[in-house]
């Protein structure tokens, strides 16, 4: 009987402690969102971002309705936010292609970027502009 009580106590303690990592994982997310909000508001006040390009140029990459993106001035984050099926990695591939070969002269040239196929282009061509 005594052994059963110790086993039950151990099991209850183990179950109680098993939720501790879940609670600890949730806390950094809340703290990081506060830090992100603070850094976002600081970035909004500064006229120049980290790489030295003006905020106005960055805002120029996205139209006012956030439905399209200028493929010659957009950042990887802009591509990821506006284009369906494009994340930061493909967005960076577009920028790398643009930096190597120069500005796009036609929206269709986007299909030449590795990872951007015809289907992905067709799905997003209404969101793209020069």
Automatic annotation (TrEMBL):
Gene3D superfamilies: AF1531-like domain. Keywords: Signal. It comes from the Bacteria. One of its GO terms (cellular component) is type II protein secretion system complex. Residues 1-26 form the signal peptide. One of its GO terms (biological process) is protein secretion by the type II secretion system. PANTHER family: ENDONUCLEASE/EXONUCLEASE/PHOSPHATASE FAMILY DOMAIN-CONTAINING PROTEIN 1, ENDONUCLEASE_EXONUCLEASE_PHOSPHATASE FAMILY DOMAIN-CONTAINING PROTEIN 1. This is Competence protein ComEA. It comes from Ewingella americana. The lineage of its organism: Bacteria, Pseudomonadati, Pseudomonadota, Gammaproteobacteria, Enterobacterales.
């Amino acid at each position: 009987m005594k052994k059963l009580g110790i086993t039950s106590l151990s099991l209850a303690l183990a179950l109680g402690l098993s939720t501790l990592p879940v609670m600890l994982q949730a806390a950094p997310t809340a703290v990081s969102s506060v830090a992100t909000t603070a850094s976002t508001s600081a970035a909004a006040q500064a006229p120049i971002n980290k790489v030295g390009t003006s905020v106005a140029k960055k805002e120029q990459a996205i139209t006012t309705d956030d439905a399209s993106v200028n493929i010659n001035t957009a950042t990887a984050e802009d591509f990821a936010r506006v284009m369906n099926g494009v994340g930061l990695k493909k967005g960076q591939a577009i920028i790398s292609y643009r930096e190597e070969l120069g500005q796009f002269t036609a929206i269709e040239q986007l299909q030449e970027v590795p990872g951007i196929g015809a289907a992905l282009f067709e799905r997003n061509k209404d969101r793209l502009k020069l």
